[in-house]
Amino acid sequence: MRCLPFAVMLFCSSVVHADLFTAQKAFERNEFAKANAELLPLLPLGNAEAAFKLGHMAKAGQGQDKDLVKAYAYFKYADANAFTLAKAEWLELEPSLSAKDKKQANIMLAQLQTQTKIKREDMLKHWAMVKAKKSLQPETNKNTPEPLLRISPKYPVRAAQEGLSGFIKFGLLVNKQGDVTAVNILKSYPQGMFDREIIRAAKRWKYKPSPNNWLKTMWFEFSLDAENTEYSSSNLIITPELIDLAKKGSAQHQYDLANIIEYHTNAFFDSNTGESRRLSYLDPNLSAVSYTLNPSDFVPPQAISPLALRLNVPKELSTPFFVSVDDGGRITDIKFDEQETLSIDIKPFFGHQLTEGNIKKGFYKVEREGEIPRLYPAKRVPSDAYVYWLEHAARNGHKKAQHELAFEGSEWETYLLEQKNPLVQTWVGARLVLDGKKAEGQQLLDAAISQGYQDATVIKADLLQL
Length: 466
What we know:
The chain is of the alpha+beta class. It has 19 helices and eleven strands. It has helices at about 5-10, 20-30, 30-40, 50-60, 70-80, 85-95, 100-115, 120-130, 155-160, 195-200, 225, 240-245, 250-265, 385-395, 400-405, 410-420, 420-435, 440-450, 455-465; strands at about 145-150, 165-175, 180-190, 205, 215-220, 280-285, 320-325, 330-335, 360-370, 370-375, 380. The strands form four sheets. The chain has a four-stranded antiparallel β-sheet with strand order 8-7-9-10, with no helix packed on it. The longest helix is centred in the first third of the chain and has 17 residues, at about 100-115. It starts with a helix and ends with a helix.
């Protein structure tokens, strides 16, 4: 099938830093050619809002000749990708189009759908994973050896001085002797702030010798509050401005929002109590699509003081857990962290007098400080909030967001391999070698090395010793 001109322009575009926010700003300045150039590269990523905006530009003849056929195709594409405002637009145009026009528009639509690399159903699969309590959590392998020595990384002086907390996701390549031979940074937030210290520390870790070499994904949280320093964390706070810019289509702000949500909703543990310091319950019955995000939903746990109440916690209920109580302090519902496996019937505890103090009807979390149970105000948030904004950033062209989704083995992995992304080539190549597909894995590592990606050189050298 011959490509129509608009499709050729779309899939041959080489704009690198494209996002909806930049396109909108260009549009407001009547720089329609720039807006068009920002939006076109987002269509192969299944970005429905980009298609919707392109439809309006074609309909109004902004920066181009007025083209209702093209507008109709864009609106239909946006509608197929669940952009709710698009259906009314193509329905409005439909009576003015001839049978020939509709046929041409459908050819354009088919081209868009065929050349879309990331389908909407792939995004829905991620949401389904989250709702099925298989959210984007670090990989664990029960067959990997137990750690014998873990050196804690130093807290960077600059991070402490600037009041920065954060977290890092990294891959470890460990040989049969239990030595860490390579550390590959997969995600760092804030970017680059903690990389050096985690690499220095992790290379000194030691694991129990095993029959096989293995690859493991790890998380590490850098928290000023956990370090009990004189500084307080200032960068992991959700502000109204951040939410506003994310909603307006800024890929970087969407990515930042996803990371901060992840920080507050992941089960990071307090080193003193051994318990989760998360005060947001990931509710699988809430959807990020319809949920109104509120900054108060993600308040750092260290900023919340426990209520001065004496609690009567049933001995059968192990802490931590979330609880709904009425105005009389009686339990009306119990929720456990999504990582917990519920092995007891909670209904017999409904009506239990948790506290007789002055308490408002609401949602709380029960934690222990030593042997003493404490009650904290808590929030319900959608379990898919993190992946929702991460997907938006990825579809909006943010490379690091795409990397994160690729590490979960999704269609983003296939897409980034097609794009010859060296980080994904390295990670997938190492995994293939360890899975016994040596030639295929080495080919990907060589491709990453040819692009000057140093981690691939180190990892390949270690893998060749297997």
